[in-house]
C-alpha cells in the first residue's frame, strides 16, 4: 500500500511535534504486508539494499511493541530522485490490530491460550485503570494517559540484556518500578553502564541500567513523586504511602491544611475551622476528614484542588458573621443596651465601657474594631478590657461558657471617636500574586490615599500566592472599606481581610 501525506496532516505533525518542514520525512509512505515476522526482517534487508537509509530513522516496534500493542518496522530511506520516503513493514495480523484495534486480535487466536495472551497484552489498560482509581484529580488522569500512550520512547537494557521501553524523560526510578514495585520501593541507588548515578538520572537510549536495593523496609521518598515521569511509578509510590504510612500521611495532610487555614481562616474559632474542613472533605468525596488528610499526605489529591473549596467555605462563614452584625443571638441581650456617657465610663480612646472605671482598655488584634462597628468589651485576666467587634468569633466562643459570658461588658463608641484626627491601628491581610514589585504597588495605592503605614511584612504561600500583612492607621469603618475597595482594583490583589489571629 502507498499513500501521500495530506497538507493538513503535515501541518498537524509540525505543530504537535514542534518540527520544521525539513524534519518531516514521511510525505510519501509505503506499507508492505507479509505473512511472518521473519519475512518482515527479510523485506527490511531488501529495502536497505535498494536504497540508502537515513541514520536514526529506523524503529523496531516488533521486538519492542508500543504499550497500545502497535507492532511494525519503520525505516526512512532516500529514493533514487533524492526524495525521502517512509517504509512500514508488518504482518497481516499486525496490520489488522494497527487499523482496527486490539479486538482484531481475536480473528487470529482462539481458546484458552488466546485469553491468556490477550490478558497479557491488555496489562497497559489495567495500569490506566489503577491510575484512575487512585487519584481524584481528572487533570492528572488525562496527563497520565497522554504520557503513557502519546510519548516518544527511550530503550534501555536490564543487566540480563532485556529491552525496556519507557517514555522519553523517564528516570532510573521509573525503570525500577517498571521492573517491579518491590524493587522500586527498596531502591537505594542505580548504576548506568557500571557507573553510579543519582536516582533522578534521565535515561538515554542504549544504557544498561542496574538497580541497587536494600532489604530494609524504608520505602520510597515523597520527593520521588516530583521526579518520576510515568504514571505507573507515581501510582505505585502513592499506593505504598497509602497502605504503609496512613498515620504519617494524616499528619502531613493536616499540616498542609492548617497552613492554608491560617491564611484563609484567620479570626475563626477552632470549631468553625473544624466545620469548614469537614465540609470540604464531604464536597471532595471523602468519608471523613482523616481520609482527606491521608489523600493529601500521599499525593492522591493535590492541595491546589481543595483551596477553592476552602476559600468558599471560609467566605460562607464570614457572611454568616456579617449577618449577625446587628446582634448575634449567641450573646446575652444586656450587651445590646449600649451604655451612655452618664452611666458608662469614657476610656479616652473613643470607647465608652459599662461598669466601673480604672481598667486599661485595648483594641483586639483578632478583629480590629473601628468606629462604625458594633463592639463589646471583654474583661481579661491581668490586661484590662479588650474591645472586640460584636460578631468576633472569639467573643462568640467566649459567650458559650458561663465564665466567659460574665466577662462580657457592653460598649459603644463615644461621640469624639470619629474625630478628623482620630485614627486606629488596623491590620490588613492582603492575598496577592507572588511577583516582583507587588508590595511597591500596594504601598503606592496607600500613599495615594494618604494612609499611614505602621508595619509591613509578607510570607510566601502556595500556588503562587503571597500574604502581605500591613498595619495602617484608619479613621473608621467607612475609611477602611474605601481603602479595601481601592486595593482590590489592583490586578495582583486576590483578597483583603481585616485583622489576624
Write the layout of secondary structure elements.
Layout: E1 2-4, H1 7-16, E2 28-34, H2 37-50, E3 52-53, E4 59-60, E5 73-78, E6 84-91, H3 92-100, H4 112-121, H5 123-133, H6 138-149, E7 153-157, E8 163-167, H7 172-179, H8 181-185, E9 187-192, E10 195-197, E11 209-213, H9 231-244, H10 246-264, H11 270-283, H12 289-298, H13 307-323, E12 345-346, E13 351-353, E14 361-363, E15 375-379, E16 385-389, H14 393-398, H15 402-407, E17 408-413, E18 424-433, H16 438-448, E19 453-460, E20 465-474, H17 477-487, E21 493-498
Parallel strand pairs: 2-6, 14-16
Antiparallel strand pairs: 1-2, 3-5, 4-5, 5-6, 7-8, 9-10, 9-11, 12-13, 13-17, 15-16, 15-17, 18-20, 18-21, 19-20
Helix pairs in contact: 7-9, 9-12, 10-12, 11-13
Structure in words:
This protein is α+β, with helices and mostly antiparallel strands. Helix content is 37%, strand content 22%. The protein contains 17 helices and 21 strands. The protein has helices at residues 7-16, 37-50, 92-100, 112-121, 123-133, 138-149, 172-179, 181-185, 231-244, 246-264, 270-283, 289-298, 307-323, 393-398, 402-407, 438-448, 477-487; strands spanning 2-4, 28-34, 52-53, 59-60, 73-78, 84-91, 153-157, 163-167, 187-192, 195-197, 209-213, 345-346, 351-353, 361-363, 375-379, 385-389, 408-413, 424-433, 453-460, 465-474, 493-498. Strands 1, 2, 3, 4, 5 and 6 form a 6-stranded mixed β-sheet that branches. Strand 19 (453-460) and strand 20 form a beta hairpin. The longest helix is centred in the middle third of the chain and has 19 residues, at 246-264. The radius of gyration is 34 Å and the shape is elongated. The termini are far apart. The model has no long low-confidence stretch (mean pLDDT 79).
